[in-house]
Amino acid sequence: MNLLENVNDTVNANFNTRLEGLTLTVAAIWDPGYVSIEGEAAPTRTRDYPDVYCTDCGSQLSGYNFDVFEKMASLGNFKTNWTIFGDVDSSRGETYEQMALNFTRDFDVSGQWWSDTARRRSIGVSCGYYHTDVTRMLTVLETTGSDTFSLLMLFAPFQSYIWLVLFAAFLLVSTALVYIEHDFHTDSKRVNFKDELCRSLWNTWCRFACGGDAHDPRTHLGQLVQGSYGFLRLIVVALYGASLTSILIEDANTSGTIKTMSELRAAGGKAIMFEGDPLKSRILAQNPWLIPEDVSRGEILNTTDFRALLDKYGSQAVILSAPDALTVAQNSDLCDVIVSGVAISAGGGFITSYDDCLSDLNFVFDSLLMTMESDGTLDYITASYANKKCTSVIKTESPKSKYQVGLFRISGIFVLGSAVLVGVSVLSKLHQVADGVASKSRAKESGQTEG
């Protein structure tokens, strides 16, 4: 039957009301958040299609797609008669293509989002305006930045050869000052070269660490050496501080979260996809390395422990349509799930049949949907179903917290410094004890000799 037969087709006719007074039969799969009865459990399939859950039950339904379609009916002044079915049962050999074909054959329209594919077009299923983004998205666990403990953090800013170059520079400057300033030492203050070099090394380190200097050069050449060394110190300290700060902040904010298909490949390349995903062949064609794990859509959408789901199937991510991905993220008990990246772009909408000119309905639907889009109605309905559980699909943090460094991350510096101080103190004490024992031994021997 042509539902648009005998309609007013004059130029002045309001196209949005061409279905006025008609009642459309609308079919949909039970889909929590989109078309379902809130508070009720998903229907269990007991037989092959048509396994009807309820009919003429629009007064009980809610969800994003239901609200969009009912708003569209309100604007177009037509009525709806909803029939709800359970989800596709793969154990019965059913596919979403078969369900789409059954819906469009037995009803005027399916009032929920459907992916638009070449296969569905080829079997006579017409998809209207893409009012729902069904892009396949990577849904992954959010991992925080590195917060590991490292005793060697103090040496992280420079590569090992730079530390060797710095030590060589200390030694060179110290040796130069010993030779340059040697003649200005009085005989009473002269010590052997080894002691002078050790003292010069200590002074050089003190200058580098801003600990002061017990000796100022007397000669112009010595002053030139110390001035050049001071400039070197300025550059090295600035680079050291900047590098250490960058390392700490970068480690704290660099996330191991998988954000792209290439990162998924590097992480192992295994992803959960829902059984019967019509875009699976396209995704595999673009990513032949991908190892898909087919899981029922109901199991994915009902999970509240996302980590357990990934562990169960040994996967690193779940590839879902954008609406399903948001549902999974919002259902997470720990709110640790994020929708991170695009696997493949796609759009979806309400579907009708090409037979009996039913596809002409899409022209009216498209006009109504674009009207709703332009006046903000679609955005309003979308917002009303967003973030029902988790506060945000993608978490944000304050600028201050982004650049703050945790104590645990730099505790290795303090532990290493404390260990050195304790070690030096213990060795000093042992040295004192050894000197005391040696002194007593010498005194005892001296007493025995005198006796």
Describe this entry's structure for a reader:
- By secondary structure, this protein is of the alpha/beta class.
- The protein folds into 3 domains: 15-133 and 347-384, 3-Layer(aba) Sandwich (D-Maltodextrin-Binding Protein, domain 2); 153-251, Helix Hairpins, CATH 1.10.287; 261-342, 3-Layer(aba) Sandwich (Rossmann fold).
- 46% of the residues lie in helices and 15% in strands.
- It contains 15 helices and 12 strands.
- The strands form 2 sheets. Strands 1, 2, 3, 4, 5, 6 and 12 form a 7-stranded mixed beta sheet that branches.
- Strand 8, helix 8 and strand 9 (291-295) form a beta-alpha-beta unit.
- Helix 4 crosses helix 5 and helix 4 (160-181) packs antiparallel against helix 6 (220-253).
- It starts with 22 loop residues before the first strand and ends with a helix.
- The model is unreliable at 8-13 and 391-395 (pLDDT under 50).
List key phrases describing it:
D-Maltodextrin-Binding Protein, domain 2, Rossmann fold, Helix Hairpins, 12 strands, single chain, 5-stranded mixed beta sheet, 15 helices, 451 residues, 3 domains, alpha/beta
User: What name goes with the CATH superfamily of the largest domain?
Assistant: Periplasmic binding protein-like II
Number of strands: 12
Average the pLDDT over all residues and give the rounded result.
Answer: 79
CATH class of the largest domain: Alpha Beta
Along the chain, the helix and strand elements come as: EEHEHEHEEEHHHHEHEHHEHEEHHHH
How far apart are the first and last residues' alpha carbons, in Å?
134 Å
Range of strand content: 5-15%
Structural class by sheet pairing and helices: alpha/beta
Radius of gyration over all CA atoms, rounded: 38 Å
- Give the % helix: 40-55%
Task: List low-pLDDT spans.
Answer: 8-13, 391-395
The backbone outline, from C-alpha atoms, is elongated
CATH architecture of the largest domain: 3-Layer(aba) Sandwich
Question: Number of DSSP helices?
Answer: 15
Main sheet properties = 7 strands, mixed
Overall number of structural domains? 3
CATH fold title of the largest domain = D-Maltodextrin-Binding Protein, domain 2
